[in-house]
Design brief:
The complex is a heterodimer of chains A (about 250) and B (about 260). By secondary structure, chain A is of the alpha/beta class. Helix content of chain A is about 35%, strand content about 25%. Chain B has one domain. Chain B starts with a helix and ends with a helix. Classes of the chains: A alpha/beta (about 250), B mainly alpha (about 260).
């Protein structure tokens, strides 16, 4: 269980998170939605301590990760897989080497086992035969799939997806969503998806939380969230410019 | 008035904390370099990028520097009827000063700027965050191997610069201006002592460390945007040049 308690974060004078409280249910997919620039990625980066809060707690199985020492922090991070917005593949490595990278660096597995595991993941994301290519030779969608393969290759307990479908066409976006749902079903990880691709992302989400004005406006099971009477939630779902969320 | 002093104080504190961060970065990169597992493959890769890839520019600049020294040395020494000391002047100048400093400049321009730009781009495209999130220390993976590689490559590049420079001065002095080949090498043999080679070696070693340290720090902490990367690259080159010259002054005053 991951629990975020009264999380505050500012960058200079800009207050991004103003007391976020949220729980992520183990083994389920929770999607965090919100307008662009509302702090979703900032919140996500606190979950594996890529950012540290000004105040508040991030509890994983009851342990506050904001207080961990560096060695403990690295151990905790090895429980995570992360798919970054731009996939964040290492430019200098091929797709195969990118996916193999965490296994080579963090495990004692022999090269034959690594090869088998990597090829399996590459095939699961539909990139078979592409392992020898470099990230710059792939399309945006392919890079995201390769990033997903790398995020899943260590069989993590928790996977963070930062806007996995942003910039993709609707068909590719749907295929990425299906891929997330299918892999979550197969591996049973706790999935945390940052997205504003609605309503499509609701299809794969067990829970949805909405971040606006630095706080969680609503956090509910998906079917209850879409029916929520919260004006901010309704404004966001309907894509209206008038309402409690001021965009301009 | 109070505001003015407040601004000065705040600026000073910012600079001091930045200096502290730069030193901690070096300590951490150095400490991690000797902590197992050793990144031998990465060190070899960076030996290629820092050493082999800088070879052509070092050869070319060394050769032309030597030829210029041949002309200038001959012109100056002829005034004292001491043309036969050309070999000695060229060798001492190159071994003690020009070799380490100019090859450090070449490596900064050729490789240091590329280091800063590469790490800055990795920061902007979240590749450094990706390393953190895979529980891999990016300083150990990206910076420590570069520091070790530069400590190996820089003295070797300097030695090559020195040899090629001495040959360039020989070509001009002996081949073009008529200095005797025997006196060129005899003068060199009589005046160059181990201390001259040693001081050049120490300089090249410390310049290698300065270049990699500064360029990696600037790239690693570049603001995650295109202008941030370009600014980090420029700053890394300018700061490396300045620090190399300042450190050269201190080393020369100690080792003279």
């Amino acid at each position: 269980m991951i629990r975020v308690v009264d999380l505050h974060k500012s960058f200079g004078k800009q207050q991004v998170l103003k007391g976020v409280n949220l729980e992520f249910v183990t083994g389920k997919i929770t999607t965090i939605v919100g307008t662009s620039g509302c702090g979703k990625t900032v919140l996500m980066k606190h979950l594996n301590a890529l950012l540290l809060p000004d105040s508040g707690q991030v509890l994983i199985d009851g342990v506050d990760i904001t207080k961990l020492k560096q060695r403990e922090l690295y151990q905790m991070r090895s429980r995570f897989g992360v798919l970054f917005q731009g996939a964040a593949l290492l430019d200098s490595l091929t797709i195969f080497d990118n996916v193999a990278f965490p296994l080579r660096e963090k495990t004692d597995l022999d090269e034959a086992t690594i090869k088998k595991k990597v090829e399996e993941r590459i095939e699961q994301v539909g990139l078979e035969g592409m392992g020898y290519k470099f990230p710059a030779e792939l399309s945006g969608g392919m890079r995201k799939r390769a990033g997903l393969a790398r995020a899943l290759v260590t069989d993590p307990e928790i996977v963070l997806f930062d806007e996995p479908t942003t910039g993709l066409d609707p068909i590719l976006a749907a295929s990425i969503h299906q891929l997330i749902a299918r892999t979550q079903h197969t591996f049973g990880f706790t999935g945390i998806v940052i997205s504003h691709t609605i309503p499509q992302v609701f299809d794969i989400s067990d829970y949805v939380a909405m971040l606006a004005d630095g706080v969680i406006q609503a956090a509910k099971p998906t079917n209850e969230f879409v029916k929520s009477q919260n004006p901010a939630v309704q404004q966001f779902i309907r894509g209206e410019t008038e309402g409690p969320i001021q965009v301009l | 008035m109070l505001f003015f002093f407040g601004q000065i104080g705040s600026y000073t504190l910012r600079q001091l904390s930045e200096m502290g961060r730069i030193f901690l970065f070096l300590l951490s990169a150095f400490g991690l370099a000797f902590r197992p597992p050793a990144k031998i493959r990465l060190i070899i890769y960076h030996l290629k990028t820092i050493g082999v890839d800088s070879l052509s520019v070092v050869l070319l600049s060394g050769f032309f520097t030597g030829m210029v020294m041949g002309f200038q040395g001959y012109y100056s020494l002829r005034k004292f009827n001491a043309e036969s000391w050309l070999g000695s002047a060229a060798a001492l100048g190159l071994l003690r000063e020009l070799g380490p400093v100019l090859s450090a400049f070449m490596v900064t321009g050729r490789t240091g700027s590329a280091m800063a730009a590469e790490l800055g781009t990795m920061r902007a495209t979240e590749q450094i965050d990706a390393l953190y999130s895979m529980a891999i220390n990016p300083v150990k993976y990206l910076v420590s191997p570069r520091i070790i590689a530069s400590l190996i490559a820089m003295p070797l590049l300097t030695a090559i610069f020195d040899v090629v420079g001495i040959f360039g001065a020989y070509l001009i002095g002996v081949g073009l201006l008529g200095v005797s080949s025997g006196s060129y090498f005899a003068g060199m043999e009589n005046s160059v002592v181990f201390q001259d080679v040693y001081s050049g070696f120490v300089k090249s070693l410390s310049f290698g460390l300065i270049i990699t340290w500064v360029c990696c720090y600037k790239g690693f902490n570049a603001p995650p945007m295109a202008t941030g990367v370009s600014r980090a690259t420029t700053e890394s080159v300018v700061l490396s040049f300045v620090l190399v010259l300042v450190w050269d002054y201190f080393l020369t005053s100690i080792m003279l």
